C-alpha cells in the first residue's frame, strides 16, 4: 500500500522551472520504492505569481502550501520584476518568498555544503585547504533585518534588525541538535563587537549551550568567519547564524566546494508545518531558458524534502548516492567547468538511481 503525499511545487522564475522539473523527475523515480504516491500541485509564485494574479504569493498558492506535506521551490526574481518595482512600485517576487517563510514560520534554514569526491578541481581553493570540507549552516530565517521595519527615502533609508530571545533560542536548539548528531562542534557567528542583536544572540546561544554539555561552542565574528571559510573551511562542522549573515556565508561556502548550483536547503518550522525545500541559488537570469542550469542543488533539496518532510530517509539516501556517483564519474555541468546540460545531468542521475 502506498502513502499519498501532497507536494506543492513552486517553479518560480528564471531557471526555477528548469531545475524543479529535473527534481520532480527524480522524486517520481524514487517514490514507488519508497511506498509513496505523489499528488503534485504546481502553483504560480514569485514573478510568475505577479504575472498570474498581481501577487507574488497568490492566495491559492498559499492555500496549497499550507495543506501540503512538503513544498519544493525553484527560485524567484528577475530583472523584469526589479524594473517594475523600481518604476511602477510593483511588488517584488522576493516579497512572496519572505512572506511564505513568515506565514509558515519556517525559522530554521539548513544549508549543507560538502566537497564531493572528484570535485577538488572545481574549488577555487587549493586542494589541501578544501579537502574534507563538510559544513552545515543553520541560518535563522524569519527574523532579523529582512523582517524589520524598512524605510525607503530618496536621501535616507533604513532597515531595522530586530531579534528576540525566543527567536534566537529556537534556532540555536536546532543547531545544537544538529551538532550533537554530527561531530559535536558548533560555531556561532555574529557581530557582537558592534551589534546589540549579536550580543543578545551570543548570550542566548551560551544559555542554550548549558542544555548541550557534549557540544563545544565557539563564537566567531562574521568578518573573520568570511575569511576562515576560505583559509580553513575543513575546521568547521555546524555553523549557526542570523538571517543576513547566513544568506551571505552560505553562498560563499557553496562556491568554495565547487558551485552554488550544487547547494540544497531545507526551511523548517514546527513539526506540524510543511517544510520548504529549495536550492540556495536564485533565478540566474543570465542563464535562464538555455537548459544549462545545474539541477543538482534542487535535486539534493528534493532529497532533503524526502528526509525532513516525508521521513523517507532511504529514498533521500538513494538520491544523494546517485548524485555522488555521477560527480565521481566526472559529470560536469557548465558551472563546474564541463558541458553537460540540465537534461544530461538529470538523465545521468536517473540512470545512477
Ligand atoms: N531563493 C530565491 O528565490 C533567490 C532569489 N534570488 C533572486 O534571483 C535573481 C538573480 O540573483 P543573482 O544575484 O544573480 O543570484 P543567482 O544565485 O541567481 O546567480 C548567481 C550566479 O550563479 C549562477 N547560478 C545560480 N544558480 C545556478 C545553477 N543552478 N546552475 C548554474 N549556475 C547557477 C548564475 O548563473 C549567476 O552567474 C535576483 O532577482 C534575486 O533577487 C536570489 C537568491 C535567492
Ligand atoms: C529573499 C531571498 C531572495 C533571500 C536569499 O537570497 C536567500 O534566501 O537565499
Ligand atoms: Mg541567498
UniProtKB/TrEMBL annotation:
Which SMART domains does the record cross-reference, listed alphabetically?
Iso_dh
What does the Swiss-Prot or TrEMBL cofactor note state? Binds 1 Mg(2+) or Mn(2+) ion per subunit.
Required co-factor(s) are:
Mg(2+); Mn(2+)
Q: Name one Pfam family in it.
A: Iso_dh
**What GO biological process, any one, is recorded here?**
L-leucine biosynthetic process
Compartment list? Cytoplasm
Against PROSITE patterns, the record matches this protein to:
IDH_IMDH (PS00470)
In this chain, Mg(2+) is annotated as bound at: 223, 247, 251
- Which UniProt keywords are listed? Amino-acid biosynthesis, Branched-chain amino acid biosynthesis, Cytoplasm, Leucine biosynthesis, Magnesium, Manganese, Metal-binding, NAD, Oxidoreductase
Source superkingdom: Bacteria
Record InterPro entries: IsoCit/isopropylmalate_DH_CS (IPR019818), IsoPropMal-DH-like_dom (IPR024084), Isopropylmalate_DH (IPR004429)
Q: What is its EC number?
A: 1.1.1.85
Q: What protein family is recorded?
A: Belongs to the isocitrate and isopropylmalate dehydrogenases family. LeuB type 1 subfamily.
| Job of this protein | Catalyzes the oxidation of 3-carboxy-2-hydroxy-4-methylpentanoate (3-isopropylmalate) to 3-carboxy-4-methyl-2-oxopentanoate. The product decarboxylates to 4-methyl-2 oxopentanoate.
Q: How does it assemble?
A: Homodimer.
Q: What is this protein called?
A: 3-isopropylmalate dehydrogenase
Q: Whose protein is this, by species?
A: Parvularcula bermudensis (strain ATCC BAA-594 / HTCC2503 / KCTC 12087)
Gene symbol?
Answer: leuB
Amino acid at each position: 500500500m502506498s502513502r499519498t503525499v501532497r507536494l506543492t511545487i513552486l517553479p518560480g522564475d528564471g531557471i526555477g522551472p528548469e531545475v524543479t522539473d529535473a527534481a520532480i523527475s527524480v522524486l517520481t523515480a524514487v517514490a514507488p520504492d519508497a511506498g509513496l504516491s505523489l499528488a503534485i500541485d504546481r502553483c504560480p509564485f514569485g514573478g510568475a505569481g505577479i504575472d498570474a494574479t498581481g501577487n507574488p504569493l497568490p492566495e491559492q498558492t498559499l492555500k496549497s502550501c499550507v495543506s501540503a506535506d512538503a513544498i519544493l521551490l525553484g527560485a524567484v526574481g528577475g530583472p523584469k520584476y526589479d524594473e517594475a518595482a523600481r518604476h511602477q512600485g510593483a511588488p517584488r517576487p522576493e516579497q512572496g518568498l519572505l512572506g511564505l517563510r513568515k506565514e509558515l514560520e519556517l525559522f530554521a534554514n539548513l544549508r549543507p555544503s560538502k566537497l564531493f569526491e572528484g570535485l577538488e578541481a572545481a574549488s577555487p581553493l587549493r586542494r589541501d585547504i578544501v579537502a574534507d570540507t563538510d559544513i552545515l549552516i543553520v541560518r535563522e530565517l524569519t527574523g532579523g533585518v529582512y523582517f524589520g521595519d524598512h524605510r525607503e527615502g530618496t536621501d535616507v533609508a533604513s532597515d531595522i534588525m530586530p531579534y528576540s530571545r525566543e527567536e534566537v533560542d529556537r534556532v540555536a536548539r536546532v543547531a545544537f541538535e544538529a551538532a550533537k548528531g554530527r561531530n559535536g562542534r558548533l560555531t556561532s557567528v555574529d557581530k557582537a563587537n558592534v551589534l546589540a542583536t549579536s550580543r543578545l544572540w551570543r548570550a542566548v546561544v551560551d544559555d542554550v549551550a548549558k542544555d548541550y554539555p557534549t557540544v563545544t561552542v565557539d563564537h566567531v565574528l562574521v568578518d573573520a568567519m568570511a575569511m576562515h571559510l576560505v583559509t580553513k573551511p575543513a575546521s568547521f562542522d555546524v555553523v549557526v547564524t542570523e538571517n543576513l549573515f547566513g544568506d551571505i556565508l552560505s553562498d560563499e561556502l557553496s562556491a568554495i566546494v565547487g558551485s552554488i548550483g550544487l547547494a540544497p536547503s531545507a526551511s523548517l518550522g514546527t513539526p506540524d508545518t510543511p517544510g520548504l525545500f529549495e536550492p540556495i541559488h536564485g533565478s540566474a537570469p543570465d542563464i535562464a531558458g538555455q537548459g544549462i542550469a545545474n539541477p543538482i542543488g534542487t535535486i539534493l533539496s528534493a532529497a532533503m524534502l524526502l528526509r525532513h518532510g516525508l521521513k523517507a530517509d532511504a529514498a533521500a539516501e538513494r538520491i544523494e548516492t546517485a548524485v555522488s556517483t555521477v560527480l565521481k564519474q566526472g559529470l560536469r555541468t557548465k558551472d563546474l567547468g564541463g558541458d553537460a546540460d540540465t537534461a544530461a545531468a538529470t538523465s545521468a542521475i536517473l540512470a545512477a538511481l
